């Protein structure tokens, strides 16, 4: 059981590193929660310089369908 938990921790850390690297390299981050308009308006804050259909989510621009 302990070995299983260690493997899960290693996998979670590896996945977190991949997400951080890929999100840091892209100017727009098409997050899954930003594709629905009501979810987008709940999780994202509108940005003044964002293109129509975009919002800011965790300081990244998300393309959202309004």
From TrEMBL:
Origin: domain of life: Eukaryota
Signal peptide region:
1-26
| Keywords, alphabetical | Signal
Q: What is the lineage of its organism?
A: Eukaryota, Viridiplantae, Streptophyta, Embryophyta, Tracheophyta
Quote the SUPFAM superfamilies the UniProt record gives. Scorpion toxin-like (SSF57095)
> What name does the UniProt record give this protein?
Defensin-like protein 1
**InterPro entries assigned:** Scorpion_toxin-like_sf (IPR036574)
């Amino acid at each position: 059981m302990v070995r299983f938990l260690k493997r899960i921790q290693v996998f979670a850390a590896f996945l977190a590193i991949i997400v951080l690297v890929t999100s840091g390299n892209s100017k727009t981050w098409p997050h899954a929660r930003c594709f629905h308009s009501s979810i987008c308006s709940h999780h994202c804050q509108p940005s003044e310089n964002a293109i129509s259909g975009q919002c800011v989510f965790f300081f990244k621009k998300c393309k959202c369908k309004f």
